[in-house]
Specification:
Distance between the termini: 31 Å
Shape: globular
Mean pLDDT: 83
Family: Belongs to the ribonucleoside diphosphate reductase class-2 family.
Strand content: 5-15%
Low-confidence stretches: 3-15, 225-230, 697-727, 873-885, 890-914
Helix content: 25-40%
Keywords: Cobalamin, Cobalt, Disulfide bond, DNA synthesis, Nucleotide-binding, Oxidoreductase
Largest sheet: 10 strands, mixed
Radius of gyration: 29 Å
Catalytic activity: a 2'-deoxyribonucleoside 5'-diphosphate + [thioredoxin]-disulfide + H2O = a ribonucleoside 5'-diphosphate + [thioredoxin]-dithiol
Number of strands: 26
Function: Catalyzes the reduction of ribonucleotides to deoxyribonucleotides. May function to provide a pool of deoxyribonucleotide precursors for DNA repair during oxygen limitation and/or for immediate growth after restoration of oxygen.
GO molecular function: ribonucleoside-diphosphate reductase activity, thioredoxin disulfide as acceptor
């Protein structure tokens, strides 16, 4: 525990305050934390699949020997600063941690956080120990920016605001652009903008918020394509009582219908295609702010009033259930909109006297004041599981207060993208502590994710984390003062603290593990209320649950955020290069905890390694199957299992939870209605859903596509007596291939199946013939491939554009599928998918391939460097791929005198398969996840976003 003592110097004429007395957690007096670690040198070599071409190389980097190759690779490529090959380039984890922690410690000392120099040293040593031992991690902007000459941006989450004025709307466009340019995301509520059913002061009709969304969407898409390849991360919110709510709800679903129609008409509608830019509203997540009044009307089947923005009067009445049905139907069709429960959010709001909470960040975990930001940090829960399977409550408490202290210090020195955001954040000091590895912790201790016991453990840990955080915030208020806006919000803030404490009192414990955690949480909340009454609070917000994508990989976490495990089998990168398949290390520990003998454990693990699941594993009792349930696969956790876990932790969080509830493709609109309704009843703040294969941008299953077409065909009206007309048709003529023609033969492997493709062209260029060989001559497969080749060749010779074949066969799914041996095409969903991607790369110009979203490995690398892939040269500039923000030179730094020479070990020479790919290969299951634009491998879900396990890139969340 931390104490306070007099000792800080008065600043600005204010009375002296008490500085913090720090106590050691993991370190020893007189021993630097680095000195107790065995360090080793490695080479980080990132390659393009198996062809050996290198797109990043830094040799002799230094990491603790217990860090995985994957974690070291991600930190080296993403977080080390300075140009590769120069003395300024960071080459050791020590340098990175020193750069960041040094700024935190110096700032804390300068602003009177500590009682004395010894306390500052303890803070410095403990922070360094926790970071290098992967016990917690700051969010990515901290690692990118702190200690460099770049702006000291530490926040990953932003909320903007817009008023019903053209100047404000244009300012919104500008502010979003600045945030997107920096690689971050933001959210905004457009409900202040008057609807298209209201009049302007000039007498004309207003455009409405949905029309202004078009401009913002185009801006986001332009900045995305001009800077990075990933789509912009943004959230757009509209209140359910806005007169344009139906148009908002159906906006993206209507665009999906447009995509289908254009695709069927022959336009290139793949992600990244040139024709997809004609489709609007694709760069944002949409959410509806629903009120308790509306949800009660849905329950009762009553009517609900839509209100004018300027006067507040009801200008239209709608059927609540009908509107709710439209929300669920749109989400069933395209995953948007999500819901945010407005009254629940504002009932837990600590600063209502300043303003309501109207919006969120793109992933919906940060919900607070407009024009504000939040910096995040996440704890690796598995680090607190002792050998006897008990939870280390004491050290968890101490680490939480250390992290909260550091996070508050960061606001003191941080820079912000706009002045308004800076002013609000400094005045209210919002923090977002959270955790990762909950799913792994539950499995290791024998708790099923979807069980009362699992939810009790999760709730107790979350309560302890937030109770300790606010108790620490009250201590910081006593040392350096409460946040500037506390005085006017003191009563509502203390009311919310009492609500948290009451929820903790109502928490029902199941076993000894959660009972001990809950007992300490009760003590922390009691002390929090006592100190808060005396000192106030330093922070308006303390906790939330973020996706923890990249930093989860940095900490070698098996699971991210609040998520369960994705799969029981993963691939692990090896120090000597390559990778090997392993069963999750938590499984043997879980089996031992459940009482199985060593021989039984070995047999079960061997079965899991072969099959990827536990069903029918030898000796495993069926009542234990649920302990090993995962997010996808043979025994996928039911959608309501995810909702119930969110509900178990939500009362103990200042903010919300980044998590998408995944539903199978067979889910109905009723299922989504039930999820949204139960989310409200269970007290969640926000909820998003995703039904597999619901979006055209993802590969569609044959069944869903056929049903859609049948429904459309049935709706067509056929005349009773059709008029007979004679129509003359200009028929195409066949352009036969000459006897001698240039050709290329490609040997390929898809999912272990080998084949050969010979593609012949006309002498004046243009593909005219394709021959495919797979399996032995005379076999059924060989005959089918011969017939297919003839059909395609004849079509090409009759003038069918190759692009038309691309649009039909790219993304087609069937076995064999999976990894290929082609450096440009890492994954293929079928042999046909591979063949036509290869033909596109060989025979189509860059502009036409870009419209189809098909790029070579070199072109993807060029995009990441910000270069024009169309003008790509054959040589690869390796240094340009490095993270090159300049680092501040330190006088005592020898700048390269002790730099390593030849590496002692080789690491990261070949990318490992992400667990999503592993699950597919084991169970013939295809996960709906995008391919990473940095390295081309399939990403995996992380909260509401996706993260690449190969290189650490995310789809929008830091």
């Amino acid at each position: 525990m931390t104490e306070t003592a007099s000792g800080s110097v008065a600043r600005g004429g204010k009375r002296p305050r008490k500085g913090l007395k720090m106590k050691r957690i993991f370190t020893k007096p007189g021993v630097h934390p680095y000195d107790e670690i065995a360090w080793e040198r490695r080479d980080v070599v990132m390659t393009n699949w198996r062809d050996g071409s290198i797109n990043f190389e830094q040799r002799g980097v230094e990491f603790p020997e217990f860090w995985s190759v994957n974690a070291a690779n991600i930190v080296t490529t993403k977080y080390f600063r300075g140009a590769v090959g120069t003395p300024q380039r960071e080459w050791s984890l020590k340098q990175l941690v020193d750069r960041v922690v040094g700024v935190y410690t110096r700032t804390a000392v300068e602003h009177g956080y500590f009682a004395g120099d010894e306390d500052a040293e303890i803070f410095d040593h403990e922070l360094k120990y926790a970071l290098v031992h992967q016990i917690f991690a700051f969010n990515s902007p901290v690692w990118f920016n702190v200690g460099t000459k770049s702006p000291q941006q530490v926040s990953a989450c932003f909320i903007l605001s817009v008023d019903d004025q053209m100047e404000s709307i244009l300012e919104w466009y500008k502010e979003e652009g600045v945030i997107f340019k920096g690689g971050s995301g933001s959210g905004v509520n457009l409900s202040r903008i008057r609807s298209s059913k209201e009049l302007l002061s000039s007498g004309g009709t207003a455009s409405g918020p949905v029309s202004f969304m078009r401009g913002a969407d185009a801006s986001a898409g332009t900045i995305k394509s001009g800077g990075a390849t990933r789509r912009a991360a943004k959230m757009v919110v509209l209140d359910v009582d806005h007169p344009d709510i139906e148009e908002f709800i159906e906006t993206k679903a209507r665009e999906e219908d447009k995509i289908r129609a254009l695709r069927d008409a022959g336009f290139d509608m793949d992600l990244g295609g040139k024709d997809i830019v004609s489709v609007q509203y694709q760069n944002a997540n949409n959410s509806v702010r629903v009120s308790d009044e509306f949800m009660r009307a849905v329950e009762k089947g009553g009517e609900f009033g839509l209100r004018a923005r300027l006067t507040g009067e009801v200008i239209e009445t709608v059927d609540a259930r009908g509107l709710f049905r439209k929300m669920a139907k749109a989400a069933w069709e395209c995953a948007d909109p999500g819901v945010q429960y407005d009254d629940t959010i504002n009932d837990w709001h600590t600063t209502p006297e300043t303003g309501r909470i109207t919006a969120s960040n793109p992933c919906s975990e940060y919900v607070h004041l407009d024009n504000s930001s939040c910096n995040l940090a996440s704890i690796n829960l598995l680090k607190f599981l002792k050998d006897d399977n008990s939870f280390d409550v004491a050290n968890f408490v101490k680490l939480t207060e250390l992290i909260i202290t550091a996070m508050d210090v960061s606001i003191t020195f941080a820079d912000f993208p706009t002045e308004k955001i800076g002013e609000t954040t400094r005045a209210y000091r919002q923090l977002g502590i959270g955790y990762a590895n909950l799913g792994a912790l539950l499995m290791a201790t024998g708790h099923a994710y979807d069980s009362d016991g699992g939810r009790a453990v999760a709730g107790a840990i979350t309560s302890l984390m937030t109770g300790t955080s606010y108790r620490r915030s009250a201590e910081l208020a006593g040392a350096v003062g409460p946040y500037d806006g506390y005085a006017r919000n003191a009563e509502p803030h203390k009311r919310v603290m009492r609500k948290h404490a009451a929820a903790n009192d109502n928490l029902r414990t199941i076993g000894s593990m959660d009972a001990k955690i809950h007992a300490e949480a009760s003590r922390q909340w009691s002390e929090c209320l006592r100190l808060g009454e005396k000192n106030g609070f330093r922070n308006a917000q303390a906790s939330l649950l973020a996706p923890t994508g990249t930093i989860g990989l940095m900490m070698d976490c098996d699971t991210t955020g609040i998520e369960p495990d994705l799969a029981l089998v993963k691939f692990k990168k090896l120090v000597g290069g390559g990778s090997m398949q392993i069963v999750n290390q938590t499984i043997p520990r879980a089996l031992k905890q459940l009482g199985y003998l060593q021989e039984q454990i070995e047999a079960i693990v061997e079965y899991i390694a072969e099959h990827g699941h536990v069903v029918d594993a030898p000796g495993l009792r069926q009542e234990h199957y649920e302990v090993f349930d995962c997010a996808m696969g043979e025994r996928a956790i039911a959608p309501m299992g995810h909702v119930r876990m969110m509900a178990a932790t939500q009362p103990f969080l200042s903010g919300a939870i980044s998590k998408t509830v995944n539903l199978p493709e067979s889910a109905t609109i009723d299922d989504i209605e039930q999820v949204y309704l139960e989310g409200w009843k269970l007290g969640l703040k926000a909820l998003a859903v995703y039904r597999d294969n619901c979006k055209v941008g993802q590969p569609l299953s044959a069944g869903s596509g056929a049903k859609k077409d049948e429904a459309k065909d049935a709706a067509e009206v056929v005349p009773a007596e059709p008029e007979v007309k004679v129509i003359e048709v200009n028929r195409p003529t066949r352009r036969r291939m000459p006897n001698q023609r240039p050709s290329t033969t490609t040997r390929f492997t898809v999912g272990g199946a080998k084949g050969y493709m010979t593609a012949s062209s006309y002498p004046d260029d243009g593909l005219g013939e394709v021959f495919l060989k797979m399996s032995k001559q005379g076999s059924t497969l060989a005959g089918v491939m011969d017939a297919f080749s003839v059909a395609i060749s004849i079509g090409l010779q009759y003038g069918v554009p190759l692009e038309t074949y691309m649009s039909k066969f790219v993304n087609m799914r069937f076995e064999p599928a999976g990894m290929t041996d082609d450096p440009d095409i890492r994954m293929a969903t079928s042999v046909m998918d591979y063949i036509f991607r290869r033909l596109a790369l060989d025979h189509l110009p860059y502009d036409e391939r870009a419209a189809l979203g098909i790029f070579s490995a070199a072109e993807r690398a060029a995009q990441q460097r910000g270069e024009d892939p169309a003008a790509l040269q054959e040589t690869v500039d390796r240094e340009a791929l490095a993270q090159s923000a300049p680092i501040e030179a330190k006088p005592e730094d020898a700048q390269g005198e002790d730099r390593p020479g030849a590496a002692e070990t080789q690491g990261g020479a070949a990318p490992a398969s992400p667990s999503a790919m592993t699950l597919e290969s084991h169970q013939r299951f295809t996960a709906d996840a995008p391919l990473c634009m940095t390295c081309g491998t399939k990403m995996r879900p992380a909260g509401s976003c996706y993260v690449c396990e190969g290189c650490g890139s995310t789809s929008g969340c830091s």
